[in-house]
Amino acid sequence: MESGSGEGTGGFSAMDDYETLISTTDADLLKRSWRNEKAAPEILQFESSLVQRSREQIQLMEETVEEFMKNGEDPLTVSLYQMDIDRTLFLLRSYLRTRLQKIEKFMFHIQKTADLWTRLSRQEQKFAKRSIEDMKQHLEQSVLTKLPDRYKSHLKQSVISEEDDMVMEPKLDAFVICRTRKFLGSLPVDDSGEENPLDMYAGDIYALRYKSIKPLIETGQLDLV
Amino acid sequence: MSGQSDPRGFTFSAAELEFLAEDETMEIVPNLSMERLSLISGDFGPFRPQIATQVPIWLAVALKKRGKCTIRPPDWMSVEKLTQVLEAERDSASSFEALPFHYVEISRLLFDHARDDIPDVYMVRSLIEDIKDVRFHKIGTGLEKLSSRTYAMKLNLSAMEVNVIRPFVTGGLETFYKLGNPDMIQESERQEYRRPQAADRGPRRELRR
Amino acid sequence: MYGRKACQLVKEFVSSDSGQLIVFNNDLFAQVIEECDGHLLQLQALLRKMQVEGSDNQTTKNADHFGALVHHLSLVRNKRCLMAYVHNRAEVIQNLGWTIERVLPEEIEEKLNSSEKEYFKNHSATLQSYMSDLDLDLAVDMVPPKDPYIKVRVLEEIGNVVLSDQLANLARHAILFLRRTDAEQYISQGLMEELTG
Question: What average pLDDT values come out for chain C (197 residues) when binned by 10 residues?
Fold first, then answer.
């Protein structure tokens, strides 16, 4: 996927090293998704099939380990398999946890933004719906019912507000730190359209505004670090 | 309130950086025989005494702790190579020598678990400390040059360095970005000179039509 | 001064250590609500007066208009502070749901108001329900795993035992690798010691 014409530029060993390190095992993909999810200000597309494959692999390995123990396999081998399972489980759990924490933080914004809502898994949507009910009820009981009529909304400051001006949104303008996976050529990085575009080579690390590189993360050309 | 410095862990903890570094591969020389391991993170081995093989660091350290292998430190961890890197770091005020992204974590893991496998371990350790210091100093000076013109900042740094400076760079750049944001400038101008501008605008709009 | 009490309330939250809660300030909270009611009364009075005088709210920019505006804005500001206070505390309570299952320890519970207690219950149930839908416990493994095995030296004769992953002969002076969870009981009884490095 990444190989081909870009190779053979020669004399840039760090770049070649980085290229050869790129592989596409599910373990790598899961690690990449975990990193991106942790570093991105907004919630990203749920990696549905990757999560399912990872869970299947974990289960398969757990069965293998049980088999090993039944057959009296060398305890060292067993513990190495177990450590590998533990590492994958941590990544999976932390990935799912990071997403839930974003849902907790931006629930109202995610709910009213169709593009974000569809990024959630079915279970996450259910979690979000219930979280919203919980929070709404709590805000109403604690604050909103005690306020005058025209000020009772949890989304708007008052009935005069045209927009939902009480809803917390992720800062897409936030700067993030990212690493390029391959030579990306020139990239316009600011709004003005006049500044010099960047020449981004494989393995380069940049601080950039999340908004300007969002598509590159979605297509896997850039990793957040 | 910045998403990056959220206490709930929107960035990486030291333990998480170490976890990531543990997936980098390293050469070991086993002293046992063990069949190939088909792990989720990849296939490693088979392991035969005295036959070098590549494994992730977590696996290398696990075997090392059990006395089942020696670890071959990577090329960049030699006194010769590190001396070169240190000199180059000192000679250049702004650029950074290429070391692995996780050089800090990798060297710490090996110091903790495989010190007897590292030739001149004390020298190596102090060189790495010196390199870290020089680089941090340079990072500090580099940050002073941050300005409102900075829309993007190239940072060829290691994972740990990135993590340490993240709040400064992202926070700093964000502040500049906000201060320089044309919307905000217009906003304040609009408020200050509301009347004259409003008066100006009317006819101009008419003219365009 | 308008808005001062609400600001105090928010400052109180900010000054508490991150992730920690102090007792819900019912008293100050009620005072801010009261202030809101006061603003509403004055706002309504001014609007009525303008109506009686037949002045159009959109065009008339007299003292009454700006007075009404000030009361409206003060009300909005108070609302934002109250919401910030409750919402930020709710975020801390959300976090508790990750570490504490179902029942809050007394020293935390006594800092919450009744709606917050209910919120904790509801939201941790929501979290638990997500986990059971997924059939995966997310409240463990909060930090990256380390080698689950540790090197120990047996100090007193223990003999043959069945451990979670192996049959082991724990003879005195033996040095072996055990799961940390298996070894902990022996270490705490002084029958074993962990060897590091």
Answer: 92 87 94 96 92 76 89 96 96 87 84 95 94 92 86 92 83 88 88 83
**A217 lies in the same domain as A163:** no
How open is the CA angle A179-A180-A184, to the nearest 5 degrees?
A: 155
DSSP letter assigned to residue A171: -
The answer, for A159 touching chain B at a CB cutoff of 8 Å, is: no
Residues A194 and A91 in one domain: no
For C142-168, the pLDDT digits (tens) are 889 988 888 899 999 999 998 877 788
Residue B43 three-state SS: strand
DSSP for B75-110, please give it.
GGGSHHHHHHHHHHHHH-SS------TTHHHHHHHH
**CB-CB contact of C45 with C64 (8 Å):** no
Range of the domain at C172: 149-195
How many inter-chain contacts (A to B, CB under 8 Å) are there? Answer: 116
Interface touch B154/A179, C-beta < 8 Å: no
What span, in angstroms and rounded, lies between the C-alpha atoms of B2 and C170? 53
Amino acid at B42: G
Total residue count of chain C as it appears in this document = 197
Among A123, A131, A139, select the one facing C86 at the smallest CB separation: A139
Tokens 């005058």 -> residue: A148
Residues C79 and C172 in one domain: no
Looking at the fold, whether A161 and A73 belong to one and the same domain comes out as: yes
**Average pLDDT for runs of 10 along chain B of length 209:** 36 89 96 96 95 97 94 94 91 75 93 94 95 84 64 73 76 67 45 35 34
C-alpha C142: how far from chain center: 16
Answer yes or no: is A35 within a domain. Answer: no
Test C144 with B61 for CB contact under 8 angstroms.
no
For residue C169, the cross-strand partners are: C160
The predicted-structure confidence for B189-200, as pLDDT tens digits, reads as follows 333 333 333 333
Task: Report the residue count for chain A.
Answer: 225
- Which residues have CB under 8 Å from B47's CB, separation 6+? B30, B32, B33, B34, B35, B53, B69
- Cα torsion through C39, C45, C48, C52, rounded to 10: -150
CA A106/CA B10 separation, integer angstroms: 14
Query: Using the beta-carbon criterion (under 8 Å), do C144 and B7 form an inter-chain contact?
Result: no
Q: CA nearest C87: which of A104, A126, A96?
A: A104
Residue with tokens 């996780």: B102
Mutate to test the interface with C, among A73, A92, A143, A152 (most CBs of C within 10 A): A143
Residue in chain B closest to A78 (alpha carbons) equals B37
Average the pLDDT over A99-103 and give the result: 96
Which of B41, B27, B36, B20 shows the shortest CA–CA distance to B77? B27
- What number of CA atoms fall less than 13 Å from residue B50's CA on the CB side? 0
What ipTM was assigned to the predicted interfaces of this complex? 0.85
CB contact under 8 A, A206 and B152: yes
Give residue C18's pLDDT. 78
Q: Judging by beta carbons within 10 Å of its beta carbon (0-12, 13-18, 19+), is residue B209 exposed, middle or buried?
A: exposed
Q: Number of H helices and number of E strands within chain B?
A: 8, 6
Domain membership flag for residue C49: yes
- φ, ψ (nearest 5 deg) of residue C161: -135, 155
Distance CA C110, CA C102 (A): 15
